[in-house]
Amino acid sequence: MFSNSLIELDRAHLVHPVASYRGHERTGVRVLRSAKGATVTDAAGRELLDGFAGLWCVNAGYGHDSIVEAAARQMRELPYATAYFGLGSEPAIRLAAALAERAPGDLNHVYFTLGGSDAVDTTVRLIRNYQTVRGKPEKDQFISLEQGYHGSSTVGAGLTALPAFHANFGLPFAWQHKIPSPYPYRNPAGSDLEAIIAASLAALRAKVEELGPERVAAFYAEPIQGSGGVIVPPRGWMKAMRDLCAELDILFVADEVITGFGRTGPLFACTEDEVVPDLMTTAKGLTSGYVPMGAVFLSNRIYDTIADGAGEAAIGHGYTYSAHPVSAAVGLEVLRLYENGLLENGRRAGTRLQAGLQSLADHPLVGDVRGRGLLAALELVVDKARKAPLPAAADPARRIFDRAWNNGLVIRAFGNGILGYAPPLCCTEAEIDAIVERTRRILDQTLEDADVRAAMA
Ligand code: PLP
After folding, report:
1. DSSP H helical segments within 235-299, as ranges?
2. ipTM field
3. What percentage of residues in the chain have a pLDDT greater than 90?
4. Does the keyword Transferase apply (predicted)?
5. Is 263 in the pocket of ligand 1 (CB under 6 A)?
6. How confident is the model at residue 68, as a pLDDT?
7. Angle ∠(215,314,278) on CA atoms, nearest 5
8. Cα-to-chain-centroid distance, residue 161
9. Is the pTM of this model over 0.95?
10. Domain range list for the chain
11. Which residue's CA is the closest to the ligand 1 atom numbered 13?
12. Which of 57, 117, 220 to mutate to test the pocket of ligand 1 (most atoms within 8 A of CB)?
């Protein structure tokens, strides 16, 4: 059969990202065939609600003809133009200008990449260049957060704090350091939000002191930690950390690869905390996943310092597909859609999703409900007082993902039982309600599992 032979071909030849290769060989691939709005259809014709917008990226939703047409038009006219040799293309220039106009503060310079990982890589390279040409080459140490995710390039995977990205990869590098996450649900500083902020500030100060104040180049943070389990820092946390970085002469990098482009409400989540980072990374929602693209935003100061440092010499950082015209044409059309109703719909849908998930807070398995806008998580526990996670032996993440799938819902399941949500901004009220209802069913079914019942007893 069509899909059976695909499963065999996949098993034999396609290496899947962030997967157990042997586990995947056993379970086999689930092939998706088509999608429209917030619904994906698998090879057997089954429809599922995509509660995760692909991989937190299809913010506009699937099946926008205008995006397809923008790409097709650009492919016909000029499918590729290098941005090397002083060349360029109209959509890339227009997209850079449109993004700079909308970015916070003086983040006026945009470097286009192919996705988030190479955006993070670009920041590390440019920061080293910046610190060197301003006469501080000894500033070569980088700090990020536990539970942080900053991509899968060798450098980004080292800034990432997820064990699977380090084990057997020789990471992190000696110049990459972590401080604890401001994880309100599980924070040694307790649940008081001011105390959590104070603990983060103290941890950053202590780490800088340990490394040598003259050695630290930059601090990286996601406005909401996505792949670490949708961890929402207290309001004011990012502003406090940003201000401390300025005081300590450390660059503050906001990694908005997930939070950018309406995921939490506005175009950029750092604006909700009135933060202007020194550098900002984006990808995913930039093109809504229709084609690959990322963008690094640089402040005037960083751009000018790097530019003046090199003078007439070339600054050796670039990709064949930097500023790709087809991706840029898609980015322009996606931006137009965001600003013609999608951001607004996303904000309404986000309020409904947060309220809907909060209505599950008294379910016996729900330890924590958290999120902002269309980014949310439920953290499951078998004992609310002790915050004890689901039994690890039976791979709760796999079980929850499968159960969601069987209930017609795609979500992300993390660790020992965190359900992650990032539905498209186009979701209707009925679709948001269905996500919540199907989640309730997943929880009720999980409550029937013998090992979960035993752990609760
Ligand atoms: N940074 C953050 C915060 C991310 O969530 C991701 C991907 O999920 C990346 C970087 C890497 O982006 P990509 O997978 O496009 O390389």
Report:
1. 237-247
2. 0.99
3. 98
4. yes
5. no
6. 98
7. 40
8. 14
9. yes
10. 2-63+340-456, 66-337
11. 116
12. 117
CATH topology (fold) of 66-337: Aspartate Aminotransferase; domain 2 (3.40.640)
Q: Is 11 exposed, middle or buried (0-12, 13-18, 19+ CB in 10 A)?
A: middle
What tokens appear for 420 in the block? 């992650």
How does pLDDT run across 159-178, given as a tens digit for each residue? 999 999 999 999 999 999 99
Q: How many angstroms separate the CA atoms of 38 and 3, rounded?
A: 23
Test site for ligand 1: of 160, 282, 284, most ligand atoms within 8 A of the Cβ: 284
Q: Closest ligand 1 atom to the C-alpha of 116?
A: 12
User: Among 113, 144, 258, 280, which residue has the most ligand 1 atoms within 8 Å of its CB, making it the best to mutate?
Assistant: 258
pLDDT score for 2: 55
Copy the structure tokens of residue 402. Answer: 């499968």
Nearest CA, atom 14, ligand 1: 116
Decide whether any atom of ligand 1 lies within 6 Å of the 123 Cβ.
no
Between CA 251 and CA 242 the distance in angstroms is 8
212: left (phi over 0), alpha (psi -120 to 50) or beta: left
Over its C-alpha atoms, the chain yields an Rg (Å, rounded) of: 22
| Amino acid present at 313 | A
Kindly give the parts of the chain with pLDDT less than 70.
1-3
* 363 CA to centre of ligand 1 in angstroms: 32
Please state the atom number of ligand 1 nearest to the C-alpha of residue 117: 16
CATH superfamily of this structure's domain 2-63+340-456: Aspartate Aminotransferase, domain 1 (3.90.1150.10)
258 CA: nearest ligand 1 atom:
5
